[in-house]
Amino acid sequence: MTMGSAGSAARAATVALLGGTGKTGRAVQAALAQAGVEARALGRAALADLPAALAGTDAVYLIAPNLHPDEPGYVTAVLDAMRLSEVHRVVYHSVASPYVPAMPHHVGKAVSEDLVRRSGHAWTILQPCAYVQNLVPALLDATLSVPYSLQRPFGLVDLDDVAAAAAVVLTEPGHAGATYELGGPALVTLAEVADQAAEVLGRPVAATRTDPEEWAGAGLEERERAWLRAMFRYYDAYGLPTGGLPLQALLGRPPLPVAGVLARELSA
């Protein structure tokens, strides 16, 4: 490891977005475009020759596929490809509370964080809470049914704010070696989210809790269903509280509250 690779993090002119074709990747690409940075969105096809796909870029924004069966293995392959391509800046998209033994896919991200930190690259780790946007399709139908408590606290965050933070750490100095937990400006319950959505929509939004153990997970593999049931059990007991001050510091303004995100998304 040299100070040139791990001790510096110049503004990236071209960023490779691993997972760039998904919802988060598209948002980060848009935020980078606003900052005048070229973003090369890479999907699964890029894995066939990842060193070639990364060639000529200055940094990697690393989003693993959702519920990947071996996220540490995936992250290791990306870090190895970065060495071959001589790309020395990486921002890893992790998750809020990755060190929770009860949630296997969170633990996979915790192990991956360790790999990133020991990679020798100049790294930054972002740990976002669940996006408000994840709830929008159900809210548009005026029915929010979730397999966990409606009364537990969550630091739900605007995906656009997370993307803007990603652009900041890729374009401004001083973020190498930093880990940022990204939550909204205040903790909310799902019951409160339903009430706020009802105000935006002008009609009632029914909010109900179903049993996590009875959640079917149609279309998913058994491993994926098991991992998500474990997450729902954790949410049912504890929610996912996440602080908002790191995101506020990165953005230079308060993160958009849930009510503001819903006003924008449900009126679109």
The CATH topology turns out to be Rossmann fold
Strand coverage percent: 5-15%
- Provide mean pLDDT, rounded: 94
End-to-end separation in angstroms reads 48 Å
CATH architecture descriptor text? 3-Layer(aba) Sandwich
Topology of this structure?
Blueprint: H1 3-6, E1 14-18, H2 23-34, E2 38-42, H3 50-54, E3 59-62, H4 71-85, E4 89-93, H5 104-117, E5 122-128, H6 136-140, E6 143-146, H7 159-171, E7 178-182, H8 190-201, E8 206-209, H9 222-238, H10 245-251, H11 258-265
Helix pairs in contact: 2-7, 4-5, 8-11
Describe the model.
The chain has one domain (3-265): 3-Layer(aba) Sandwich (Rossmann fold), CATH 3.40.50.720. The strands form two sheets. It has a six-stranded parallel sheet, sandwiched between helices. A two-stranded parallel sheet has the order 6-8. It has 268 residues and is an alpha/beta fold. Helix 5 (104-117) links the parallel strand 4 and strand 5 (122-128). The protein has helices at residues 3-6, 23-34, 50-54, 71-85, 104-117, 136-140, 159-171, 190-201, 222-238, 245-251, 258-265; strands spanning 14-18, 38-42, 59-62, 89-93, 122-128, 143-146, 178-182, 206-209. The relative contact order is 0.15. The protein has eleven helices and eight strands. The termini are far apart. The longest helix has 17 residues, at 222-238.
